[in-house]
Amino acid sequence: MLELLSPAKNYEQGCEAINHGADAVYIGAPSFGARVAAGNSVEEIESLARYAHLYHAKVFATVNTLLFDDEVEEAVKLLHQLYNAGVDAAIIQDLGLLECDLPPIELHASTQTHNASLERIQFMEQVGFSRVILARETSLEQMKQIRSNTHIDLEAFVQGALCVCYSGQCYLSQYISGRSGNRGCCGQPCRSAYDLYNGQGRMLLKDSHLLSLKDFSAAQQLQRMIDAGITSFKIEGRLKDMGYVKNVTAYYRQLLDSIMEGRPDLHPSSSGKCRFFFVPDLEKTFNRGFTDYFLRQRQTMASFATQKSLGKRLGKVKSVGNGSITLNTREPLTSGDGLCFFNSQGQLEGFLVNRVQGNTFFPNRMPQDIAAGTTLWRNNDQSFNKLLQANSASRRIGVAITVSDIDNGLRLEMVDAEGCRGESAVVCDKQPARQPERALEQIEKQVSKLGDTVFEVTAVSNQCKGVYFIPAAVLNALRRQAVSQLEANRIADHMQRRGHSGTLAQRLSNHAPYISPSVDYRANILNAHTESFYRRHGVEQLEYGLEKTLDYEGKSLMTTKYCLRYELGCCLKGKSAGQSRVAVSLGDTLYLNNNRNWFRLDFDCRQCQMTLTAVKAPFQQEAH
At 622, is the secondary structure helix, strand, or coil? Predict the structure, then answer.
C-alpha cells in the first residue's frame, strides 16, 4: 500500500487535500505542534477525521515539540483526547512521552527525532514506534539499507521547503531570538542574509542567503523511492496556502497513480477516484527552485540570491518599449500576473502586469533595470489561481445499487468496491406501473442521485418481481438512508482497523539498549521523563538540551550535510560542482555574520558535514 501524505493547516485544507487525492493528512493539534501557528481544536480534528475516514484516508496529529516538565501531563491528556477523536496516529518528538500513560494510539517518530541512521531507526522500532519519518538527507541507497534491516513503516518527504540543518539538531533560532525550532517557534534565521568572511577578516560575500536552500522535489525519483522501500510520501507545507495544497497534492496523486497502473503489486491506501479540473504544475505555486537534495548524490542546492518564491520561468525579454515589455514565451500572460527578475545588483525585483497584447505586456511600473535577454519568472499566476479557488477536484467512491422487494415495501442496498454495505427499507404501496419503461427509468434516476455525497453509481440492478410506480419522495428517502448507513459503516470499519502502538506495560517492559551509553545536548532532553527514557535504555551519561540550559558556549548550533565550501566551488576534497563562486581562496577558517551575530563554520570532510558555532567577534573590527 502506498500513501500520499499531505499537510493540513486547518479543517478546510485537510478536506481539500483529501479531495485532491491525499491518502492521509497531518494536522497540528491545539498545542505542542512544530508549527505553532498551525494549531487546531480537537473538535476540528475530529470533524476532519470523520471526513477522511469516509475514504479510509487517515489523519495524523502533530504533537511534535520538546516538552518541559510542567507540560508533559497536558500533552498526555491531549493525546488521549486526540485518540478519542478518531486520530489514526500521533507524530511525536519528545521520547519522554513513551514513559507516560498514553492511549494505544499509533506513534510516528517525527523527523525531528533525527532519524538519520540505520541504528537510530532500529532503536525507534524496538521501543514501540510504528513509523519513522526519515531525515530529509537520506539517500536512496540508505533507504534500501534501512528497508532491508527493519520492518517499521518508512515515510519520506517528496516536496516542500528544506531545513538546512538536520531536523531536531538546529538551535540557531533559539540562540538568536529565544524562539526554539524544537518547540514550534522557529524564526527561520537560515533564510536571512549573511556576510561571509575568511580567517583574515576579509569579506568574501555580502548580504547573501548563504544558508537558504532551494525547495525539495523528488518528483523524478518517486519510482526509485518506491523500489527503495518507502511507502508514505510526505508533502511539506502546513503553513502554505490552499492553492499550494491542492496543486501539489494533485500533482503527486497523478504521479503515484501512473506508477501504480503498471504495478499490480502496488495499491493506494485509501479509496476513491480523483478527477481534476485543472492541470497540476509544481512551478505555478510557491517554490524557490527545486533540488532533490541528497537522494542521488551531493549537488548545488542553495538559493543565495533570494529566499522568496520564483514561481515558473516564462522566458527571456525580447524587447523593451515605451512602457511595454515583449517576452519570448509560450506561456499566456494575464492582467494581474506577478512577474519577477534578478536586477543588475543580483536582487529579486517584482512588478504586476496591467494589460496584455499577445506576448507584449504593460507593467504597473516600468522596471529601470530590465533589458532584452533578461529572464522573467511568474510568481503569481492569476488564471491558475482562479482555477484553484474554484471547485478544482472531485473524489468519488464507486457503489453498486440494488433495489428489491420486501413483503410490504422496497429494499435498497449499496455496496462499494471494498464490500462495505449500506441498506435501507421502506413500507410503501407497490402499484403496478402503467408505463413500465418510464417507471424503471424513474427508479434508476432517483436512486442514482448521489449529488454531493462521496459516492458515485457504477451499476443499478432492479430485482423487484414487478414493475411498480414508486413516488420520487419514497425513492429519495430510500437512497438517503442507505447513503447514511454506508457512510457510518465505512467510518466504523476504518476505526476497527485503526493501528495501535501497544499498552503502557508493553512499552515500559522494553529495555532495548540505546545506540550509545552517553548522549549530549543534541538528545534534546528537557524533562525528567525523557531523562528516564534514556536511562531505562542504558544511557549512563547525559546532558540536558539547550532550551533548558541556555549554555551555548562551544556548542554546535547547527549540523548539516549542506556544505558552503562545496556550494561555492571550493570543496577541500576537490568534489565541488562547477567553478569557484568567490574570487579568492577561502582559507581554512570561515565565519558568518548577521546583525552582529558571529558564527564559525567547521567542516568534517570525512563525514561531509558542516557545523555552525556561535563565537565572539573574531576580528577587532569588521572588514568591509
Answer: coil
Q: Are 457 and 390 in contact (CB under 8 A)?
A: no
C-alpha to C-alpha distance for 315 and 339, rounded to whole angstroms: 11
Neighbour tally for 487: CB within 10 Å: 18
Please state, in angstroms and rounded to a whole number, the distance separating the CA atoms of residues 464 and 481. Answer: 19
Identity at 41, one-letter amino acid code: S
Helices 42-54 and 72-84 sit at what angle, rounded to 10 degrees?
40
* Beta carbons of 168 and 237 less than 8 angstroms apart: no
Do the Cβ atoms of 442 and 383 come closer than 8 Å?
no
Which ranges in 117-221 belong to alpha helices (H)? 118-126, 140-148, 172-177
Q: Which three cell numbers stand for residue 346?
A: 543580483
Q: Which 8-state DSSP code applies to residue 514?
A: P
Cell numbers found for residue 397: 467512491
Backbone angles phi, psi at 416, to 5 degrees: -90, 180
What are the Cα distances from residue 115, in Å, to 118, 169, 237, 296, 335? Answer: 8, 11, 20, 18, 47
What confidence tens digit (pLDDT) does each residue in 543-601 have? 999 999 999 999 999 999 999 999 998 888 877 665 566 655 676 789 999 988 999 99
Question: What angle in degrees, to the nearest 10, is found between the helix axes of 436-447 and 472-496?
Answer: 40
User: For position 624, what pLDDT does the model report?
Assistant: 46
> Rounded to 10 degrees, what is the CA torsion of 254, 256, 262, 264?
-130
The residue type found at 522 is: R
**Grid cell locating 310:** 520564483
Among candidates 18, 88, 86, which has minimal Cα distance to 50?
Answer: 86
> What's the maximum distance between 2 C-alpha atoms anywhere in the chain?
103
Cβ neighbours for 376, distance < 8 A, ≥ 6 positions apart: 313, 314, 315, 316, 317, 327, 329, 339, 340, 341
The string of DSSP letters for 307-370 reads SS---EEEEEEEEE-SS-EEEE-SSPP-TT-EEEEE-TTS-EEEEEEEEEETTEEEESS--TT-
Q: Per the structure block, which three cell numbers stand in for 601?
A: 563554520
CB contact at 8 A, 586 and 204: yes
Q: The C-alpha cell of 1 is what?
A: 500500500
Separation CA 141–CA 138 (nearest Å): 8
Grid coordinates 467512491 are at which residue? 397
Q: Can you give the three-state secondary structure of 32-78, one letter per residue?
A: CCCCHHHECCHHHHHHHHHHHHHCCCEEEEEECCCCCHHHHHHHHHH
User: Contact, 186 vs 180, CB < 8 A?
Assistant: yes
* 3-state helix vs strand vs coil in the chain, percent to 5: 30, 25, 45
Q: Which three cell numbers stand for residue 524?
A: 534534546
Predicted local distance difference test score (pLDDT) of residue 501: 74
Helical axes 242-261 vs 11-19, angle rounded to 10°: 30
CA distance 132 to 120: 10
pTM, two decimal places: 0.95
Give the separation between CA 186 and CA 197, rounded to whole angstroms: 26
